[in-house]
Amino acid sequence: MSTLQPIIHVLRHSSDEDVVEQFFEHESLIWIDWREDEGDLIQYFNDRLPESDQIKCEIIDIDKPRGVDIVLSSNDRKLKIPFADDRTDRDSAIRAMQEMIAPRYQIRWFMESLGNDTLAYLLLSTEQWTELEKQFGKEKLEFHFQPITSESIMFSLDMDEVFTLVETRQKARTSE
Asked: Do residues 161 and 155 touch, judged by C-beta distance below 8 A?
């Protein structure tokens, strides 16, 4: 069975709540809790990458309220995650990981997990995402699997924003 087969199935039957619910259990999803340690979530993504493409994660104690800097590196790149002075956060770590693995890979947020305190992500090669986009169209693919960009806000959404997004998505789903 193709690696993409379960994803194709959920995209084909996205209006079937049972199919979507079953996909929540799929092993390809990477689940990240809002309390997750940023170093751990980098490892979750690394676990889905070939060893040659994995990102090194160095945690350095610093004298700022957040207490640490996290530096990501590969053979040819190095990136200090741009956290606020007073805290680390999952959004910045996920955006930085996406930046490090691009353009070969893409992390996308499985939007059906919106509203939970644990969010689901899917990491595939850019080639696989392109194949899915050709088959289902960019709009449908991004409705269900939102690309991570430098502006992505996931865990830092306030509850009003989450409720508005959930409501907007429900309205869009009923018009599919």
From this structure: no
Q: State pLDDT tens for residues 122-163.
A: 999 999 999 999 999 999 999 999 999 999 999 999 999 999
Task: Supply the mean pLDDT for the chain.
Answer: 93
Do residues 91 and 154 make contact, with C-beta atoms less than 8 angstroms apart? Answer: yes
3-state secondary structure the chain: CCCCHHHHHHHHCCCCHHHHHHHCCCCCCEEEECCCCHHHHHHHHHCCCCHHHCCEEEEEECCCCCCEEEEEECCCCEEECCCECCECCHHHHHHHHHHHHCCCEEEEEEHHHCCCCEEEEEEEEHHHHHHHHHHHCHHHHHHHEEECCCCCCCCCCCHHHHHHHHHHHHHHHHCC
- pTM, entire model: 0.93
